[in-house]
């Protein structure tokens, strides 16, 4: 495929100088990654070993659970870095043609990036039929490219509106159900001298992609059956509607423009600078770890369903989520797929994952279990947030189509969001510029843009 060499060189993944291979014990691995020194201990050394890279905080427990319960294969696990650090090492292995693990944790929006390089394999023929009903249609779509399935879903990020109940009570605000109501509430709070209602962080373009999906946009159409063709529609009416709306909130001083996931933003959240946080189901874990919900702001946080662009038909969207993919360097992809489908799918691992705020489970056995649904979330002061917000959103989520050059798209989107925040362009102008930029990039990489 003529795109692949060009794309690999311009995937915007910084290539690591040297490959970090698996540090694991037990028998020989099935792939190019040597399984001689594992982070975990392999209890059944006579069984074949599948190597795995993953960064979930409870991964050692998860791997131990799998190995103790499995009599066909054992897992040699290591954490070579989180997110981009892992992807850098994987990209190096792809370029070298050796050194990748058999199974790798990949965020859903990165799957097309590696699929187009033929670095991960379609796992439909390796046990997919046995687990298909364990996950929703939307969960499978997020890990698919065209008709191919390139990952086993683990966790997701159904979105909602986290808010300060004390601020809402003080200013007589009820949780808005539409974005129109959101703006009215924001203006009410501002007029009364209250805090900013939210924040437009230029460094979270995935949020705005999700909100555009919610408004009816289809930013990308891409099918691995036609890998050199891609549809790009970043400046349609729905996309412009969303960006013009948020640009208007910025212009009116109703929301802030601070980059998120920064000490400055967290300090503002703790200090009561924002009445709402538009985020995903994993946010309570992130906020708790950052020190939010302690001291003066303990017990004040609640969550409500995400406001809608059109109130009649609620649309659920997602931010974040990861899966286990089988790499093309796995010598035994069927055995590797058994690991991808089976690890982090047992009851004990799923329970530990959601109770400790490591994952929002996509496995339907956990997602719809009474224990999870009825859980009184401590961060939300005992609110049954899963029942009221996150589980319905996850079950209704229909999935998204991601692009094989997702990092470039997000970087370009961030640049346009920053310009909106500076007041130098309108939302519609940002959408037009983004369309021109991303189409130009796609054509440079050899794609035919439809």
Automatic annotation (TrEMBL):
Q: Which PROSITE patterns match?
A: PROKAR_LIPOPROTEIN
Which residues belong to the signal peptide in this entry? 1-23
Give a yes or no for keyword Signal in this entry.
yes
The cross-references to InterPro entries, in alphabetical order and at most eight, read: Bact_solute-bd_prot1, SBP
What keywords were assigned to this record?
Answer: Signal
Q: Which PANTHER family match?
A: ARABINOSE-BINDING PROTEIN-RELATED, BLR3389 PROTEIN
What name has this protein been given in UniProt?
Extracellular solute-binding protein
**Organism, as annotated:** Microbacterium wangchenii
